[in-house]
Design a protein that fits this description.
Elements (H helix, E strand, L loop, with lengths): L1 H14 L9 H30 L3 H23 L4 H23 L12 H11 L2 H24 L10 H40 L2 H9 L4 E15 L2 H5 L4 H22 L2 E6 L2 E6 L8 H18 L9 E14 L8 E3 L1 H11 L6 E4 H7 L3 E11 L3 E11 L1
Parallel strand pairs: 4-6
Antiparallel strand pairs: 1-3, 1-4, 2-3, 4-5, 6-8, 7-8
Helix pairs in contact: 2-3, 3-4, 4-5, 5-6, 5-7, 10-11
């Protein structure tokens, strides 16, 4: 385990070359794979240099050794001055491209050199990773030109060195090119999957799963009618005067702590959080997936919210909740094309909001409709009538607990 840890630190040290403060996850990944490319290229060049020296091809060995002689200082340069990463990368690609052209000429062309120019594809991939797609396209054009050059160079000049059978070199060049190409493809496939998952997770955090899945298939207006649903509104009693004496960090922290607990209750009960607005929290039961026990589920949530706040100080504050529930038909959907959210409309929503705003601090007020749905499973006490804008006087009840 200790040896593995040391190895990880060793690898991490060399892959960190060129890192700069504030780089994004994407920039970090692209930089690291390019730096890994460079170290791998330097490492595998040592063998051919030694072989070519023993084989009596000093000029080939000289040009190949430039990869090491210039590559290592270049990497340490971008470690010391990350802002030079682009310039050093362009220079490195030009050096490697020129070297493989020189080696191709010294050995007599395309096949006699063991397809040395095939390594130009690695340059194209490196440009795509470290620079831009536009740079990669220009380097691909250069690669095509190098193939033509390798094919015609024997007609212009004689080879300085002759290899009896270049097959082994060709296999090695193809293998190295294929290996690095595979590494890049796997990296980008992994990045695609990772970002797709992040995108899906974000979409599912914003919208109900069913709605998110529908949007991914058909990005059109969504509008659904539900005959039976329950809507719950909750807010913190006297939150406005309390928040006046809090810093922004304290204010947001308190609401985040409180609503995170509520979110957990919502998930456990299979309900749907619709939105928060200031200190107001809105939840629907029976939307977007219909359920016969929507009123009971909303009542369970309300009791959990009330009891949790009563028993636990939130960020050092003792709070009281005012909660209201009403049941009935609703329209649910998404409107607009930007920053959209899943929302509910209809008289049921308005009445549920009035149940909360005209409720009793520390209590759960339910409408007569909701009471009729839950009265056999829950204890409720009559409160009397409350004035509801546009509805007149409505009979209400206070939800006390389970029967």
């Amino acid at each position: 385990m200790a040896d593995q840890s040391r190895l990880n630190r060793f690898v991490e040290y060399f892959l960190s070359f060129g890192a700069f403060p504030g780089e994004s996850v994407t920039e970090r990944g692209r930089r690291r794979i390019f730096v890994g490319y460079a170290w791998f290229g330097i490492a595998i060049t040592i063998g051919p240099v030694a072989f070519d020296l023993r084989a009596g091809m000093p000029w080939v060995a000289f040009f190949e050794s430039l990869i090491i002689a210039l590559g290592v200082p270049g990497l340490f340069l971008i470690k010391a001055k990350p802002r030079l990463f682009g310039a050093v990368t362009n220079l490195a690609l030009m050096v490697v491209f020129t070297i493989q052209l020189a080696v191709t000429a010294l050995l007599g062309g395309l096949w006699p050199s063991g397809l040395a120019v095939l390594l130009g594809l690695i340059i194209v991939l490196a440009a795509a990773i470290a620079l831009s797609l536009r740079a990669a396209l220009w380097w691909f054009v250069a690669f095509i030109v190098s193939l033509i050059y390798a094919a015609v160079i024997p007609h212009w000049m004689d080879a300085r060195y002759v290899i009896d059978d270049p097959t082994v070199d060709a296999v090695l060049n193809i293998s190295v090119t294929g290996l690095l190409t595979l590494a890049v493809v796997l990296y980008f496939a992994r990045q695609r999957d990772r970002f797709q998952k992040q995108s899906d997770d974000l979409l599912h955090n914003i919208l109900p799963d069913e709605i998110a899945d529908r949007l991914k298939v058909d990005n059109t207006m969504i509008a659904d009618h539900f005959d039976d649903a329950s809507v719950l509104f909750a807010d913190v009693v006297d939150f406005t005067p309390m928040s006046a004496g809090m810093t922004p960090t304290e204010l947001v922290g308190l609401l985040n702590t409180l609503f995170s607990v509520f979110d957990g209750f919502v998930d456990e009960l299979g309900l749907e959080k619709i939105k928060t607005a200031g200190d107001e929290y809105m939840v629907a039961a029976g939307v977007p997936t219909p359920r016969t026990d929507h009123a009971q589920a909303a009542a369970d949530l309300a009791l959990r919210m009330r009891d949790y706040v009563a028993a636990n100080p939130i960020a050092g504050h003792r709070l009281e909740m005012r909660i209201g529930i009403h049941s009935g038909p609703v329209v649910a959907g998404i409107i607009g094309t930007g920053k959209f959210s899943y929302d509910l409309w209809g008289d049921t929503v308005n009445t549920a909001s009035r149940m909360e705003s005209n409720g009793v601090p520390g209590s759960i007020q339910v409408s007569a409709t909701t009471y009729g749905l839950i009265r056999h499973q829950y204890n409720c006490t009559p409160r009397g009538t409350v004035a509801v804008k546009g509805k007149g006087e409505l009979e209400t009840f206070i939800l006390v607990g389970h029967s």
